[in-house]
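note to self: dont lose this again. the chain is below, predicted strucutre after it. 347 aa total, dont forget to put it in the shared folder this time
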Amino acid sequence: MLFGLSAFTLIFVITQILNIAKLVSEEHAPLIAAVEYFVLQLPGIIVLVIPMALLLGVLLATQRLSGDSEITAMKAGGISLYRVALPLLVVGVVTSFLSLFLQEKIAPISQDRAVYVREEVIKHATTIPQSLVTSQGLPGGGRQVTSASSFEPSTQTLNHVTVIQYDRAQRPTQIVIADHAQFQADAWNFQNASVYRFDPDGPTISRFPSMRVDIGERPAQFIQQVSSNNPEEMSRSEILRVISEGHLTVPAMRSYYATYQSKLARPFAAFVFALIAVPFGLRPVRGGGSGLGFGIAIVIVFAYYVVSTVFLSVGSMSPAFAVPAAWAPNVIFTAFGAAMLRRAGNV
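---
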C-alpha cells in the first residue's frame, strides 16, 4: 500500500511540480513559498490517492499469496476464501474512515493555508476588490450576516464592514458598521465602529474606537470565497454552510449539494477497491508481476472514477438524485466485487 501511495501520489503531483517551476521562473515567487504551496496541496491529493493505494496493495498481496500457493494451502487447511478476505475488507473499512477524516479535518485547513500563500506571498495581492458576504447561525436560532466591500490579504483587513444579527423570527436585533476590521488572534478588531441595537424600549446607538467581533470566518476563508468557488476544495461542513447562506444560483446549489453527498461516499471507495482487488489478485498471473498489478489497478480506478463522474452529473440535475447518484458507483462496484469473490470462493 505504501508503494501504491508513493506511486499514485507521484503521478498526481507531476503537474504541481511543473507549476512550482513556473511560479519561480515566470512569477518570481520565492522558492520557499512555492514549495510550501506545493506541500500544502498534498493532503488533498493523498485523500484521493489512498483508495487507489489500498487497491494496489491488496492486489499485489493476493497475487503473491496465490502465486506462492499460499491460498491453496489455506483452503487445504479448511480456511475458506471469505475468511482469507475478511482482514483485507476490515482494513478497507478502517482506511475509508481514515480517508474521510483526512478529507474533512485536514485537507480543508491545508487548502485554506495554500490559498493564503498563493494570494499573499506568491501573487502579492494587495486588495481584493469584490463584495464579500457570509452568514452563520447564532445560539437560540438566530443568524448573523456579515458583508464587506473588499479584503486586503497583506494586512488581513476587511473594508467597510457591516454585521447584522437576526433573532429566531428573522427580525434584526443589532447592526455593527465599521470602516475596517482587522483579524487578530481568533477574532476581528473593528475600528471606528457604530453599533445600532433594536431594544424593546427603542433603538440605541453606541460608538467604539475599537471592538472585537467574532464573525465566524478566518481570513483564508474570505480569500478562498473570492478566488475559488470549487466545492471539491471544501469540506462537507463548508459546502453545507455555503448552501445555507442562500447566495447560490439554482444550478450552483444543485452542484454543491451533489458534491456534498459525493464527498461522503467517495472515501468508501477504499472498501470497494479492497473487495474488488481480492478476486482479481487470485487470478492466475503469467509474468508481469507488480507491473501487471499496477496496470490492473489503473484500469479499475479509471472505470470507477468515470462512473463516479457520470453519476455526479446525474446528481447535479436535482437534489432528489444527489444521494442515490453519490452512492451508486459504490453499490455497483461492490456488487461486482462480491459476485467475483463468490465465484472465486466456489472454485
